[in-house]
Design a protein that fits this description.
This is Histidine kinase/HSP90-like ATPase domain-containing protein. By secondary structure, the chain is an alpha+beta fold. It folds into three domains: 2-124, no CATH class; 176-244; 248-371, Heat Shock Protein 90 (2-Layer Sandwich). Helices cover 69% and strands 9% of the residues. It has helices spanning 2-30, 35-53, 58-61, 63-83, 91-101, 106-115, 126-209, 215-240, 244-247, 251-266, 283-304, 338-349, and strands at 270-275, 309-315, 319-326, 353-357, 364-371. A five-stranded mixed sheet has the order 1-2-3-5-4. α11 (283-304) links the parallel β1 (270-275) and β2 (309-315). α2 packs antiparallel against α4 (63-83) and α7 (126-209) runs parallel beside α12. The radius of gyration is 35 Å and the shape is elongated.
């Protein structure tokens, strides 16, 4: 869809060259040639190339430059029409360029200004021009431009929706993988690891009850060593199923490391505070908290332009609470990006809640609450 939009934009950008070439050709072969119209025609071609072809990003991002560009087109076309009315062939292209170069309702004002060019050529029948060109052609150009703008908005809306669905689908797939890894880790911990721990304990007791000179004692010691080695390997596999920052650190330490890394990357003061009695949580809960910290800090770095960020992780009796506060420029909480939406979905899968408090020009507070039992 995006490639199709680019093709249509290219058609709109190249169309003026065709009409200008036709007008110049008719002028060369049917009129006494003067240098001024040809020089102006070439100048218009170069002007259009510089503002539209050479800098396509200016169409949507540089409104001031596009106003200058369109004013130059109007001035050049005015000069051409003063010299010869045959250059009226080029005027219809200005209707399209008004919608290409000018934003919003300014484009419609540009179309109205273009309609006045029909009155410039000498000997123009004002009545017929007003009736045909201004009374009919201009309203049709406005209508067609409005339809094209509506189609573009719909195409952009659909493209953004498709991108959103793609991101959410990928995020859901990743969440399913994380959930499955967490489930496997729980099963291994609750079955294999616990079973091996019991076996080791029983073998240690049996070894103590066996006489030192009993040959069975050596067998028991060997079995105990094998069981303990297997338990170490199982625990190592369980840790490998956890996200990188959580493999060799508790949740509070992983959060603190994330904050420190963000602070060093962005050069913005950031603090991390852990309150309450830290304890091991379910793997999926720890993953959700860590991802929430990463997303909140990423948003603060990309969008908030914050001067300071404070992160607080609170262990309470039955819940764990994450608070991320920044003093940035804020945003409208009703307009959520992909990251916040993914965070809410991830937390909601675990029965938790995400609260975002913000406003344009004010601080932003993100609160994540999850069951810690």
């Amino acid at each position: 869809m995006l490639e199709q939009e680019h093709r249509w934009n290219l058609v709109w950008a190249l169309a003026p060259y065709g009409l200008l070439a036709v007008a110049a050709g008719v002028y060369l072969f049917t009129r006494p040639v003067a240098p001024v119209p040809l020089v102006v025609a070439v100048a218009l071609a170069v002007w259009h190339w510089w503002f539209v072809m050479a800098h396509p990003s200016w169409w949507e991002r540089r409104t001031g430059l596009m106003l200058v560009y369109f004013a130059g087109l109007l001035a050049g076309t005015f000069v051409l029409l003063l010299h010869d009315g045959v250059f009226a062939i080029f005027v219809p292209s200005l209707y399209g360029l008004a919608f290409l170069a000018l934003p919003g309702w300014v484009a419609y004002a540009g179309v109205v200004v273009v309609s006045g060019l029909w009155l410039v050529p000498q000997g123009t029948d004002v009545g017929a021009t007003l009736l045909i060109n201004i009374g009919l052609t201009t309203p049709m150009a406005v209508l067609i431009g409005w339809i094209i703008r509506a189609m573009e908005r719909e195409a952009i809306r659909r493209r953004e929706m498709n991108e959103r669905l793609t991101v959410l689908s990928a995020e859901n797939a990743r969440l399913q993988v994380l959930e499955e890894r967490a489930r496997v880790a729980r099963e291994m911990h609750d079955t294999v690891a616990q079973g091996l721990t019991g076996i080791v304990t029983q073998l240690e007791v049996a070894e103590e009850l066996t006489a030192s000179n009993d040959p069975v004692r050596g067998r028991i010691a060997t079995a105990r060593r094998l069981a303990r080695d297997s338990l170490v390997e199982v625990r190592r596999s369980i840790e490998a199923l956890r996200p990188g920052p959580l493999r060799d650190a508790r949740l509070g330490e992983a959060v603190e490391r994330t904050v420190v890394a963000w602070r060093e990357e962005h050069g913005v003061p950031a603090s991390c505070t852990v309150t309450g009695e830290a304890r091991v949580l379910a793997p999926e809960t720890e993953v959700a908290v860590l991802r929430a910290v990463q997303e909140a800090l990423a948003n603060a770095g990309r969008h908030a332009r914050a001067g300071r960020v404070d992160v607080t992780l609170s262990y309470m009796e039955d819940v764990v609470v994450l608070d991320v506060l920044d003093d940035g420029v804020g945003f409208d909480p009703s307009v959520r990006g992909f990251g916040l939406t993914a965070m809410e979905e991830r937390v909601a899968l675990l029965g938790g809640t995400v609260t975002v408090e913000s406003a344009p020009g004010g601080p932003t507070a993100v609160n994540v609450t999850l069951d810690a039992r």
